[in-house]
Amino acid sequence: xxxxxxxxxGAWAWGNDGTFGGNLTADTLRPIFEAxxxxxxxxxxxxxxxxxxxxxxxxxxxxKGLPRESYLVSDKFxxxxxxxxxxxxxxxxxxxxxxxxxxxxxxxxxxxVWGAPHWTEEVARYFEGRADAPMIGVSNHNLxxxxxADEILRAHxxxxxxxxxxxxxxxxxxxxxxxxxxxxENGIIFFSYMVLEQGALSGKYDTQHPMPEGSDRAATYNPxxxxxxxxxxxxxxxxxxxxxxxxxxxxxxxxAKGTLPIIGVTKVSHVEDxxxxxxxTLSADETAELxxxxxxxxxxxxxxxxxxxx
Length: 310
Known about the structure:
12% strand
């Protein structure tokens, strides 16, 4: 497998599921994909659940014809998108591979714990002994569930290689619960998603410039923009110091914490921001100051599909 970049690019919004509002098309997304590849950010994170195959289809169209070694695909098994068939897990991954016109995935995730540990067993049995087995990860799992998944995979001669959870300056529950420590101790890569809190930590929005109404993220973050202005002011100071935009600071923070951020990209500027963020190295004092300010705001941004990790 190719070396992982410092940042993965997320195609969640490419599924047009309404979370971000608006409407994205393959024509508007292609320059974003090309920018990512040009900057060496070649790890693409998608899922069938992102628009019931829409995100995967769009990404597949961009990958078609490229050398297989030039990109990495991270896809997911979402239990709620399958059925009770004895072959449901195998059917889903084979459907996804066919949909994306691939012969393998580089990383494959158990998207959540619905039906666990049954589905972890199924994933383990499917990939056991296979030369083309991808890195196997779990998403939206707490520490006990991560330990259980690791044990199940090891019993089948595999190992848990990755964990993907919501993790940001204003949601550090995966750190407080010991998940980050467990990952470090066991050589597991922690992928942090929603590092920018769907744009709320990008510096683009404040009480005078709220998120456009009509999306889930506007309903979540607009009521707390007054508090987020305090954190944005602290991030602005660091952004000025490093000659970057505010949006690069939360990403640089996540990298400094030893995680691999997944950045959702719907504009070329998002890719350029991600590339710049990968070049910033925040000091321990800078990360601690940001965390202190963020913690003082006492915000709860656990979303409807998630749970507390403690």
